[in-house]
Amino acid sequence: MDTPPVVPVDSLEGSLIEKINLLTKDFENKYGFPPEFIARVPGRVNLIGEHIDYCGYAVFPMAIDQEILMAVKPRQDQHLELSNVNPAYEDYSCELMNFDIDKGVPHWFKYCLCGVKGIMENSSKSKNKLKGLSARIHGLISPGAGLSSSSAVVCAAALAFAHVNGLVYKKQELADYCARSERYIGTEGGGMDQAIAMLATQGTAKLIEFNPLRAHDTKLPSGAVFVIAHSLAEVNKAASSLFNCRVMECRLAAKVLARIHGINPDSVTRLADVQFLLNKTLPEMASLAGLYLHDDPYSKEEVSKLLEMTESQLENKILSENTKDVNVFKLRQRALHVFQEAHRVWQFRDICNSGSVTALQELGQLMFDSHSSCRDLYECSHPQLDNLVEVSRNHCLGARLTGAGWGGCMVALVPENEVKSFIDHLKENYYKNLPTARGRDLDEIVFATQPGSGAAIFNL
Ligand code: NG1
Ligand code: MG
């Protein structure tokens, strides 16, 4: 069974062992007893395929070296005791049988609770037999950067809680439980982040397909590496309705397209469902969206009429809690982005497998196209991110925002022998004059990255 590795900490080397030693000492100072194990979950960078996982389409992420480390001591009672090395994040504790994750302020510990809840809901043991834990988290992934720090926390907590209780699950199962349980925070994510966190393997990016979850190793052409650069525009997606608004626009676009083609809108929730029922290719779906959906935003009234329901039925049956007040939906633009971006993912995979001498240039072009689409059709970029991509344009093979967007990081494909000059170029032409970059360690903000490994437990 392909389960997350559980290995002794002595088998590790390099900087990870130093970080684990520091966290272990810090845990002892905090609680007065040592931890028993460390759960480690990496962040990720999505190379291409943005905002399409929740529409049912394949994505192309890889794990990065930055990670969440969670030091854990199992308890004999049902108490959850959570603390964070970062003093800005307050301590939290609760009882297993008695906690609630409300969709209000997305406090850090709620991500831990999501992970625990994901396991509790799927555990074969009865709830009153489950044991609690004392845990201390060290987050080494920039929050709000589009590198999936949130899902790494959810996955670390789930993995740790399962391990404390002797529950063993396949990587796919854990990814699925975590993808569903992170939605208790309020964001209607698709599952890419939890999938790559659990399924990543060192040295390869993964093409990830959903329903059922499958990951295919994809070897990237040699001669170039990915550089991640933070725009320093920060955003907490869970604290706004921007993310869910896009999910809802896609859901409505799917239902409207279904209705137009004589399909019962109740039978579809994702754009991929409509494609499946119409049995069309992705370029054909993009043409249909261009043809049948209008450019002007749809009002709530118009969508309700098209779907033959009242506005309050639309709010209560289809929209999420935090999008009930949204009154305009850009269905054509969002659907076009999704079908075209989903197509770019398969093109990206084909180019990786083609062995073509121009493969790197072709991949780069797809990344630039993806960024333009996120900026113009999906409107999930940020002026600073757009500027960062423009500053990069003639100095790399391709660049795009990564993750949900509205701020956060760019990922750029850079020839191996030009990485240093590219990073220097960004320092000189992007960060130097950016007030928010002053006093920051730029090596933590712009760095080259290789495909890293997935979630694991290290026994101390
Ligand atoms: P980030 O960048 O972590 O907010 C979110 C979603 C993904 C995916 C991307 C956009 C969650 C947990 N993550 O990622 O599923 O939809 O946006 O491609 O909701
Ligand atoms: Mg996230």
UniProtKB/TrEMBL annotation:
The keyword Acetylation does not apply. Residues 124-199 form the GHMP kinase N-terminal domain. Keywords: ATP-binding, Nucleotide-binding. InterPro entries: Galactokinase, Galactokinase_CS, GalKase_N, GHMP_kinase_C_dom, GHMP_kinase_C_sf, GHMP_kinase_N_dom, Mevalonate/galactokinase, Ribosomal_Su5_D2-typ_SF. Residues 360-432 form the GHMP kinase C-terminal domain. Residues 26-74 form the Galactokinase N-terminal domain. NCBIfam families: gal_kin (TIGR00131). Belongs to the GHMP kinase family. GalK subfamily. This is N-acetylgalactosamine kinase. It comes from Daphnia magna.
